[in-house]
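Run folding on both entries below.
>entry_1
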Amino acid sequence: MEEEEFKSNLSFSQLGLTSWLVNALKAMSITSPSEIQTKCIPEILAGKDVIGGAKTGSGKTAAFALPILQKLSEDPYGVFAVVLTPTRELAFQIAEQFNVLGKTINLKDVVVVGGLDMMTQAIALSKRPHIIIATPGRLRDHINSSKDAMHLSKVKFLVLDEADRLLTETFADDLGGILEALPKKRQTLLFTATMTDAVLELANPSSEEANGKPSNTPAPFVYQCKTAVSTVSTLAQSYIFIPSQLRETYLAYLLRSESFDKKSTIIFCGRCRTAETIRLMLRELGIACTALHSEMSQQERLNSLAKFRGGITTVLIATDVGSRGLDIPSVMLVLNYDIPRDPTDYIHRVGRTARAGRGGQAISIVTERDIALVQDIEARINKTMDEYPVPENKALELLTEVTSAKRAANMVCC
């Protein structure tokens, strides 16, 4: 049974937001709060710690940005909030939303991520911005290397966005170092599309070791948006079942087909090398594209995203570094070139399209090795994918051309 769409019977004003924020939202054509905003904004304004879970594209960023900005406007000073996120691209996107919403109060923010000049970042941090949006590793580097330039003693808010990823072993040491530098008296806000055991454990007020707060801290407000389906109803999900040696041929056919030519498309690959090979191969085939993966420099990654957002290129080839939180409304198609091993990763990938009530399409290229993975995904999303019809003869007409392009791409990658 498909979930009913949530319709708030409260306005942003009734949630407790001031008129200047309501006007900023109107300027963005946002007039009605989403479910996660309706439930969490009043609790944050009331001073509570909050754990919020909602599927991707549901307005989680605004759910914490709006009350933080309101509190900041009442008492503006130095570093007011620290927002941590697992990926660099998501950090820049969150900063963009803060800037748009905080324009009226002359918000000062700084993005602190790896791949960019540390000295430039240190200078920006020394100027006491209102909001720091950071990846944990780079922020901890600054804490360790220039403690005098870090003014974190009066931080009022700590936000963990995509908290399920941040609360893993990968980030444990960096997160611990950051928590030591922050005041115990603060509000902690955790938002995620996937409510894991590690996230829910922090709902226990006795978990002071995990969240760096006193053991007598009241339990946080926890809200999980109810949904029987992990993907939105406006997303059409299908698959193509083919032999593994024909994946590139069918990928090229789809991108050249009338249905998808010129449509804004993200192709997800499992590894950086695969993404780079596909990028070179598609260019050999005359298909304009750009890439996003962790072996690119930060400036290259930003340039790629700018080209894709601006419609200069309509095809982005990405690893899962691009599957979390990126909000590019124009994306119409997600192609899974590699099927992810974890159904959660699939949900995040396909969540890049069909956002905010729009329609979208996701097609997974399935080979003989992927059947069990697809069955796990279908069980998780509570939906059986349809087979996407591709005329085999027409697709195979490209085999020789694609094989030649793939060979040329492999020579460059090797």
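>entry_2
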Amino acid sequence: MNSESINGVTAAELAILDASELARDPELEAGFAESAHRILADLVGRGAALGWAEPPSLEEVAGLLDHVVCAVRAGDAALRVAYLDRRLVGLGYWLRYARPTHKPHADLEKIAVDRAVHGRGVGRALTAALIGDAQAVGVEVLTLDARGDNANALRLYRSLGFAEYGRLRDFVAVGQRRYDKVFYMLDFRQEG
């Protein structure tokens, strides 16, 4: 196996799996919702911009993941997970837009990486894999939105080819604080 290092994580240690690969490993699949909950609840509890004001419950996370997996089976989503030595350290997914007129497009809904491996290339690997999945199934435009203060995520998205196409000033309310909501897109129709 390749042991080339990616920001301190070797390729031999880091495994980026899709939903079908996850399902083929009963041990990983059995603990997936609980492990995902651990990551998401910790990040949200520390103020991460993941769509919750308070840490989500295990039931919320399990329900969300069930929805995503059903959409993957229907061909309307992609799910990627990152394992480091068989420990979940990140996850991400995109979902196609539901309206028939928007069906060629998808929204990158969530990328979440365990704080223990922040800055070590896991988010980049997950996002790049999801971009590849979108291209492989003919998604024309991949969109996302992020909170304006999430400078690291915005920098990552720009480095992977996303361009800002809009911004709602002070749109996101977290208690008394307000943040911009920033919209990015990756238009595959303009490539090659």
